[in-house]
């Protein structure tokens, strides 16, 4: 753990957790080719040293390196580590807010994960957890990391009068709910936030704020974090022209517990898949339907009736629906062990109806 800036017992702390990513990346020839780089090279303490002079008054920064990876390699045990670190920090009365620096490739999974495991907790405590990252490595000319990191710290430290505690993300001068993040461009500087409803950081848009409040009202209870080795095995399969039944049949004899289907359009599945999918569902494999389209809702029984056991994932992309299904399957298991008869469908349905902020 490294500590910087005016550190006194009574000064509220902002904890910055480093997970790696391009924000901590280094290019070998940054002036010529900033996109040729290795992610997760610079320690979080050094990233903070570069912005130290601009840190808002009245807070001190504490940092902790949890990982330093390219987030394309994100693992479930790392999500557990992060989830526990965030919950522990939320409980700490000295910590006013938390910032997480993360690679953008899988930031959408982590954003939804944090919302589902501690969104309510953060809201009740009136603390902000803020995810951020960068699209250019730390040594690139015009690197976007320092301003994103500073904005995230400011958002975590700023008073709640204009916006409640909860799980947010900050990128390119805009804020959104972390669960609305989605990287939808390979290189644009605002790639992770551009398709999400968002608000300029210093001018909160009233419709966005009412959306945040609607999401927070709808999310009544956080879900447990699965233990590292207990994450349910869930795969993502994409429907496409020429889809074959074998793609589903192959999973029937496996230990897979869930399939997330990225359908075409409104979550349509190729007719070649329907029979084997219905068999999968009868065998107890959880099946969830999303869209490969990139935006818009997938609603139950639209345009055709869902086969028995298959749930629509609402606004969630396939990677987000996968996290949601894993947490729902784990919640079912934990509910059963404490004598409650709630199913994964009960938990998943609560997630799939979270409002879209528009
Ligand atoms: N591949 C990088 C990562 O996800 C991309 C980024 O951070 O922007 O770690």
UniProtKB/TrEMBL annotation:
Pfam families hit by this protein: Asparaginase, Asparaginase_C
Keyword DNA repair attached: no
Binding site for substrate: 71, 104-105
Domain Asparaginase/glutaminase C-terminal span(s) in chain numbering: 234-336
Keywords from the named record: Hydrolase
InterPro entries in the cross-refs: AsnASE_II, Asp/glu_Ase-like_sf, Asparaginase/glutaminase-like, Asparaginase/glutaminase_AS2, Asparaginase_C, L-asparaginase_C, L-asparaginase_N, L-asparaginase_N_sf
GO molecular function: asparaginase activity
Annotated GO biological process: asparagine metabolic process
Residue intervals of the L-asparaginase N-terminal domain: 13-202
Gene3D superfamilies to which the protein is assigned, alphabetical: 3.40.50.40, L-asparaginase, N-terminal domain
Positions annotated as active site in the UniProt record: 22, 104
Transmembrane region(s): none
Similarity section: Belongs to the asparaginase 1 family.
Protein name listed in UniProt: Asparaginase
Lineage of origin: Bacteria, Pseudomonadati, Pseudomonadota, Betaproteobacteria, Burkholderiales
